[in-house]
Every structure is written in structure tokens, then in C-alpha cells.
Specification:
The protein is an all-alpha fold. Helices cover 74% and strands 0% of the residues. α2 runs antiparallel to α3 and α4 packs antiparallel against α5. The chain is globular and about 45 Å long.
Length: 161
């Protein structure tokens, strides 16, 4: 990717992250995890092991961010199940990387697509005036900037570099 295009993409992503509500932040993470898993699979098929490793590392970082953002106190069994799912997906990506097979990547992609679709539906429901029934779902992850947090905390991390 050209440096100017990469800079524009990074600036756009940073602006999007800073303006996002909590549900959209999770959706952004799912979106970029999918991008990286798809890139890893494409690089694997092309035989570009270094690029595959970089994409897998970014996907692993995103899954780690998702797991680290879980609020187990509020999320209860939902957050526990998501934690186990994120751990499982990380194991599958590591397996794919070590065995140089795309099957585990395909499985992770499918799981991420399902999660992204679910969060997309939540985002559409929370945007509607009668969104009270979805409030608990939006508190499972705690990625929302607090009023005393610095902007630097919410800048794109290693997963989008």
C-alpha cells in the first residue's frame, strides 16, 4: 500500500474510533479482525509467509483487545462465553499459522462474521428510539472512552498499523 494512502486510511480510522460509540468500537474491531484474517488466508495461498504472519499477528492483537475489554461483572455468562470464544479463535489462528493451513482461518472468519453481524444488529437497535432492551448487550465490552481519558488511549493500536 502506498504511504499516502496508508496515512489517509490510518487518519480515517483514528477519526472513526474517536467518534464511535461503544457498540461501534466493537464493530470496528470485528471488521478489522475480519480484514486481517482474510488477508492472512490470501497471503497463505500466495505463499507469502511473512505477510501472513503479520496479518495473523494483527488479528491476534484485535482478539486480545476484544477479550481484554470484556466486562465480566456486568456481562455475566455472555462475557464468559465471548472470552472462551476469543481464546478459541486465537488458538485456531496460531494453529493455522503453525501448520500453514487455511482451514482454521476459514473457521475464525466464519465466527467473526457471525459476531460482527450480531453487533451490527445491536448497533441498529440502539440507534432506534426504543433501545432499552439492548443496553445490557452494549455493556458486555467496555471500550467507551471515559470523560477523563486522554485521546491517545483510543488511537488505533498495533492491530491497525
Amino acid at each position: 500500500m502506498q504511504p499516502a494512502k496508508n496515512m489517509r486510511r490510518s487518519s480515517y480510522l483514528e477519526s472513526r474510533i474517536l467518534a464511535a460509540d461503544p457498540v461501534e468500537l466493537i464493530q470496528i474491531l470485528y471488521e478489522h479482525a475480519l480484514i486481517e484474517v482474510r488477508a492472512a488466508r490470501a497471503h497463505q495461498k500466495a505463499g507469502d509467509i511473512a505477510a501472513r504472519a503479520k496479518a495473523v499477528a494483527k488479528a491476534l492483537a484485535i482478539l486480545g483487545e476484544l477479550e481484554g475489554s470484556l466486562n465480566h461483572r456486568v456481562g455475566g455468562s455472555i462475557s464468559q462465553n465471548l472470552s472462551r470464544l476469543y481464546q478459541y479463535m486465537r488458538r485456531r489462528l496460531l494453529e493455522a499459522s503453525m501448520t500453514q493451513q487455511t482451514g482454521p482461518m476459514d473457521e475464525v472468519e466464519s465466527l467473526l462474521e457471525t459476531l460482527e453481524e450480531g453487533w451490527s444488529a445491536i448497533q441498529h437497535k440502539t440507534a432506534a428510539p426504543a433501545s432499552g432492551s439492548y443496553e445490557h448487550a452494549t455493556e458486555v465490552h467496555t471500550l467507551a472512552p471515559s470523560s477523563d481519558a486522554s485521546e491517545a488511549e483510543y488511537a488505533p493500536q498495533s492491530w491497525c498499523a
